[in-house]
Amino acid sequence: MRAMKWVRQASTKCETIRHSTASVIRSLRKLTPTAFMTLRRAVAKVEHLGIMGQKLRLNDRELEANKMIMAVKKEEISKGILDPTKFTPGQHIFKTLTEIRKSPIFNLIKRMPKGGVLHAHDTALCSTEYLISLTYRENLWICTMDEGCKAIAFRFSKEKPTHKPMEKCNWEPMAEFRDRRGEDNVTRYFKRRFSMYPFSKFISNNQAWAHFMGIFILLDGLLCHAPVWADYYYNALKEFSEDGVQYLELRSLLPPLYCIDGDMLTIRDTVAIYQSELERFKADHPNFIDSKLIYAPLRGVEPSVVEQYVKTAVELNKEFPNFMVGFDLVGQEELGRPLKDFVEPLLKMPEHINFYFHAGETNWFGSPIDENLVDAILLGTKRIGHGFALTKHPMMMRLAKLLDIAIEVCPVSNQVLQLGVDYRNHPAALLLAAHVPVVISSDDPSFWRCAPLSHDFYFAFLGIAPMKADLRFLKSLAINSIRYSALAGEEKRVGYVKWQKLWDKWIEDVVEQKCSS
Amino acid sequence: MRAMKWVRQASTKCETIRHSTASVIRSLRKLTPTAFMTLRRAVAKVEHLGIMGQKLRLNDRELEANKMIMAVKKEEISKGILDPTKFTPGQHIFKTLTEIRKSPIFNLIKRMPKGGVLHAHDTALCSTEYLISLTYRENLWICTMDEGCKAIAFRFSKEKPTHKPMEKCNWEPMAEFRDRRGEDNVTRYFKRRFSMYPFSKFISNNQAWAHFMGIFILLDGLLCHAPVWADYYYNALKEFSEDGVQYLELRSLLPPLYCIDGDMLTIRDTVAIYQSELERFKADHPNFIDSKLIYAPLRGVEPSVVEQYVKTAVELNKEFPNFMVGFDLVGQEELGRPLKDFVEPLLKMPEHINFYFHAGETNWFGSPIDENLVDAILLGTKRIGHGFALTKHPMMMRLAKLLDIAIEVCPVSNQVLQLGVDYRNHPAALLLAAHVPVVISSDDPSFWRCAPLSHDFYFAFLGIAPMKADLRFLKSLAINSIRYSALAGEEKRVGYVKWQKLWDKWIEDVVEQKCSS
């Protein structure tokens, strides 16, 4: 009966509210159509100004470029409305990859200076072609099972490796394996094994993750050889740079690397190799801004291990203070442990080493993983990796906005790892509309055979953002990627200058129609 | 260069903000782990109180029932986390329909008194079995083409109908058609033609809509015969009532009906038939609350036609003031016309006839259709049909909350009409979190072979709401369906009393474990 009483009270109260508000809103019907349309336009204007970047002022050349960009965008969207099966952001990237290369919008974005990539994992950066080229290196062995049908591991060694990763697998020289199976077959096979293809159907994100982790494991012996590690990073910087990326913040497990004789280096050496390759790359490419490192070991561990992680982070930061600058934990959130299990060791991290936590990369609303968002923010994270679930937490969303915590949105990754299919339903649209800072990143472009950043920008522009989002939107994404980076003080100023130089050049190219194919 | 200056200014300003806010948030790292966990729990508590219905007080029996409900819910979710391919809200309803019938949560919800259905179309209410039973009625003719392989239309007539809906189709008596093709074959064929099955794959929502409209067209001659129209409605009320629904607000095109001799009745007669069937049903079923009508003609017309619609609405409301109470426009929003084309005639609607507009049933962000949301709200709509896109418009979302405009969320419909697949990504989760009023409806349950309302409640409870949403959530969905209905004053009070009576009984049944299968 208490409930009954409540219902009555609520009902009465509700009626009162409805009565008063209804009288306000209904009175709009007394407007003349002209007055209504004026009000309507005012609302549209306010909504329009809410689109990210709309308050940016464009110069004359940018305005001209904008017209051309919006003309092609409009065409691509009109086609999609007529026949949504032709609209690539409504479909799985694995089905549309070839199609997208023909898109004028994609080709414009490809050449656009997009600033930096702030969310990417260090062994999932390079193109499949580059990975395959690595398998031609000398002294490479492959361990296979099922009569050589299934590759299990790689290893560089002068002699046949002694340790078997699995009981049933056998080592043979890579060159022999290639001869025996036929070069074309092997290339085709590796193309598949080094990526998430062809799984475009919705299965479940656990299955997708199992496959995903399998690629990391397979690549381990190929990439963790010291000289290859160095070359892979240099090549990644090159590929990113060619895709209009001038800055890269990479997350790394920082594995110890091995030498050709089997000797193991230390984690410190892993970082040192990165640092020296970076210097070499910057010397060769003066337009490139910089690269920095976030130490991001696996989350599926005991709290005591995280305590050790924190110590390692402190030591590395002491030796590489401008390069190794942040900390995160990685691995599928659902199967790892929630951040709150690690609060005690994490609170020991000195304040000058920033957190950049993965959080809320899930669609389980109200799960401990979903709640990682709360812990990440309360622990003072500078950015949030993915934050796919953030929009379900209005209070956390307000905090992110207030505390200027940028959300690292990785559209293609979310699709491939089965969080959603249609980019038009991606929750980042709501972050944009609510003015939560957003940067667009690519996570693991190697595994989905995507460009280092262009595909993610393409989907953000065409699929996630409102139709009217224009050059201002693209420009503010680029600016955000520098603003929310770990670049500090003078570094950031230099970053903006280097980006602006390429930006101005690109605007000229667009206006001169040099970018459309 | 102006842009460059802007970048510098923004950068400096941004640095200042980041510096001040960062010092607030980072200081959390100085907390002891115990203090952190206290803060963390406080945040969790606030988030928990944000779940719809959490402020409801349950009586002792309800608390007991809640424990049992949450135990089975937890089990179903745990299974899903272990193996997401087993989690029905992550998949398409057409693949899981049989599975769901076995779900203990579904069976609890099935018997739960769920209040009213506020969003449903009058020719898509009844079960497929009932539709098939109608095809056994006397004097029914079927028009088929492709050697009788494809049904085009139905018609009740003493003699062979003269008008052909398509050049190439031929009329024959239904009984002959059934004999010729074999009863089982015909039943199987109608089961498919009367529903959206088997299209569970993501195609595009245009294709889904084309198929969907095709069912309405096929059913036209079967249902628009005056006696069948009456029986169909009576049967719908019966099926809804058996599914725990005590109130039905139906949207209707109000087609003129035909008699066996081909004579046509008027729209006024269509409403009169409804009203008299309703009285008959209420006399037979004293627990049933009521049913009301929203006149909802097609939106793909000229503004002058809408002017006529408004006049018709006014006339009907004059004759049936407690039954025909509202107005809407229907048909695929993308292919129809936006509300703003009809502002002039719509503003002529007298204030006592409420608008209940479909709006934002789209994932095209920033399209004119998406913007129907703005017009619907500015025109003073009492509720919004679907509002799938509302979360992309924070200002409109705030207005909906402030003006107490309920969103009629139809989960299964949104999935079948291809707006999204995974219920865990349904935007209604965000409406719930932001305290925008929500009611759950079923739209066209006939076409997806779903229960009148139980499946939609099931997905709302298990897929859309946060994991911790419990009996309080379900109870407030039921209460909302009465609160936001077109029931007025004393009608509403009586409605609550009738619902509460069945609710108390159901709670007892749950506690006594009479509901679990």
Radius of gyration of chain A: 25 Å
| Ends distance of chain A | 71 Å
Helix count from the secondary structure assignment of chain A: 20
Main beta sheet strand tally, sense and closure of chain A: 5 strands, parallel
Could you give the count of β-strands of chain A? 12
Pfam family, one (chains A, B): A_deaminase_N
Organism (chains A, B): Drosophila rhopaloa (Fruit fly)
Domain Adenosine/AMP deaminase N-terminal (chains A, B): 30-109
Main location (chains A, B): secreted
Note down, in words, how this protein is organized:
Chains A, B: Residues 30-109 form the Adenosine/AMP deaminase N-terminal domain. Chains A, B: Its main location: secreted. Chains A, B: Its EC number is 3.5.4.4. The structure is a homodimer of 517-residue chains. Chain A has 517 residues and is α/β, with parallel strands linked by helices. Chain A has a domain at 81-129 and 222-511: TIM Barrel (Alpha-Beta Barrel). Chain A has 20 helices and twelve strands. A five-stranded parallel sheet of chain A has the order 1-5-6-7-8, with helices on both faces. In chain A, strands 9-10-11-12 form a four-stranded parallel sheet. In chain A, strands 3-2-4 form a three-stranded antiparallel sheet. Mean pLDDT of chain A is 91; it is low at 13-26. At the A-B interface, helix 1, helix 2, helix 3, helix 9 and helix 14 of A face helix 1, helix 2, helix 9, helix 14 and helix 15 of B.
